Amino acid sequence: MLNMRKIKTPKLNHIAIKVKDLEATKEFYQDVLGLKIQEERPGKSIMFKDDYGGIIGCILSEKVSIN
């Protein structure tokens, strides 16, 4: 009999992204993706939590770039 051990695999836990429009971002993450707000700092940032414990931080910024 083969001895099978569980292997712990890495996962993405949290990310932060810069956004130009917090209200549009809030609507998208709530209405389209179904995420719940973890914390909100009006005019500054919003943090969303997924069903697996991951956090997406959205930070208001005028300088948003796509790389």
Describe the structure.
GO terms for molecular function: lactoylglutathione lyase activity; metal ion binding. This is VOC domain-containing protein. The chain is an alpha+beta fold and 67 residues long. Helix content is 16%, strand content 34%. The chain has one domain (14-60): Signal recognition particle alu RNA binding heterodimer, srp9/1 (2-Layer Sandwich). It has one helix spanning 22-32, and strands at residues 14-19, 36-41, 45-49, 55-60. It has a four-stranded mixed beta sheet with strand order 1-4-3-2, with helices on one face. The mean pLDDT is 87.
Quickly list its features.
alpha+beta, Signal recognition particle alu RNA binding heterodimer, srp9/1, 1 helix, elongated, four-stranded mixed β-sheet, 4 strands, single chain, 67 residues
Task: Give a short summary of the structure.
By secondary structure, the chain is α+β, with helices and mostly antiparallel strands. The protein contains one helix and four strands, in the order βαβββ. The N and C termini lie far apart (50 Å).
Number of domains: 1
Broad CATH class: Alpha Beta
Q: Largest beta sheet, briefly?
A: 4 strands, mixed
Give the CA-based shape. elongated
Spatial strand sequence of the major β-sheet: 1-4-3-2
Spatial extent as radius of gyration: 16 Å
Average of pLDDT? 87
Distance between the termini: 50 Å
Query: How large is the count of helical segments?
Result: 1
Order of helices and strands: EHEEE
Helix content: 10-25%
* CATH fold node name: Signal recognition particle alu RNA binding heterodimer, srp9/1
CATH architecture term: 2-Layer Sandwich
Protein name: VOC domain-containing protein
GO molecular function: lactoylglutathione lyase activity; metal ion binding
Organism: Candidatus Kuenenbacteria bacterium CG08_land_8_20_14_0_20_37_23
Keywords: Metal-binding
